[in-house]
């Protein structure tokens, strides 16, 4: 297993964030907002005199941007504590066997992303909800690394506050700017740790079940671009005639801290720099994307406002420094390839009026996690606090016992409790 811990998590990352930081020590405010001092702009909204029982929820959390324009919160440099792989049949392995190596393409490669869609494509069954299962398997296989040793109250509690997928955190980061898609996040407190697992919304299920053939094919294009630009080892070349199988995945597991929230999350990584002298993970990782080619100023502005926000949030979280984008035409041919350093993305948007800000994203996520900690107090693996959000609304929650929402599997609860 890769376990690159060659740098101090407290070191230079904060310095590299200096563009976002403005005198937070001087302001003396809690960066996490719970002592936020503007009464008329408090993110925790009380709706009337409804008691604090559920459902429906009585207290919400606002996603309005202006509430989160504070100093950038502390975000420690993410450290890779492990990784895992999912094979062509979605079986879990506690190792890096699915790691792939980036092979830099031509700047104008003319890759045909439609090739193989009909006859060399095995698609993961996305009606199967895996919830946190793969991460939980990784935790059980690597428990000793994560346990706080010696406290008699909970002899093997994890030394983290939050366990989740990176993709769920991405949705939180982008919420203050999201106008179309809401989310549902199920939270269970177990042995002091909050587990956060997404629940598919009705709207998302409907979209998934009614996707057009064109949309299905376009979803394939991103994976085909990966095949054109990735090799199975540092010395080989891409196998562009092979099968694209979206069951396969390589996932990094990182630990970091957002203000006072200790986070453990996993995210799928597309590939790494094949240079043996490249920096240790996650700094050698590369995120691959495809996007429609940009032909007009309006398209450029939309790309900056919407797409770059999602790309930034997704890669900033685990500390992936580069996004390589293939810009394709309507026929699925990649006309240009460009590299976007994640640290420069927020500079590219400076000319857009009223555009997204990293500090708003991070402060909202931080305040959401504080909100969750205050609400999800009962430590019980079968209790779910369901947090729900729709654009232009506050985040609300409801509580569910032994319901369809419970997501911590018995095998996990038993193994964590029995030793
Ligand atoms: O069942 C579900 N609804 C979910 C499954 C929700 C969230 C994650 N997952 C699984 C994915 O199958 C994958 O193994 O978790 C892993 C990825 O987790 P993540 O890194 O936290 O997810 P995210 O950042 O949203 O996506 C990273 C990549 C995507 O790349 P692009 O460039 O498109 O953002 O993971 C892949 C995809 O390549 N991916 C998926 N692949 C198959 N099915 C899915 C999915 N539902 N979601 C993401
Ligand atoms: Ca990708």
From TrEMBL:
Record's cofactor remark: Binds 2 magnesium ions.
Location of the region described as Disordered in the Swiss-Prot/TrEMBL record: 1-62
One Gene Ontology cellular component annotation held by this UniProt entry: cytosol
GO process terms (BP): NAD-cap decapping; nuclear-transcribed mRNA catabolic process
Enzyme class: hydrolase
InterPro entries: RAI1, RAI1-like_fam
Keywords: Hydrolase, Magnesium, Metal-binding, Nuclease, Nucleotide-binding, Nucleus, RNA-binding
Enzyme Commission number: 3.6.1.-
Every RAI1-like domain range: 76-413
Reactions it catalyzes: a 5'-end FAD-phospho-ribonucleoside in mRNA + H2O = a 5'-end phospho-ribonucleoside in mRNA + FAD + H(+); a 5'-end NAD(+)-phospho-ribonucleoside in snoRNA + H2O = a 5'-end phospho-ribonucleoside in snoRNA + NAD(+) + H(+); a 5'-end CoA-ribonucleoside in mRNA + H2O = 3'-dephospho-CoA + a 5'-end phospho-ribonucleoside in mRNA + H(+)
Biased composition range(s): Basic residues: 35-44
Pfam family, any one: RAI1
Protein family per UniProt: Belongs to the DXO/Dom3Z family.
Protein name: Decapping nuclease
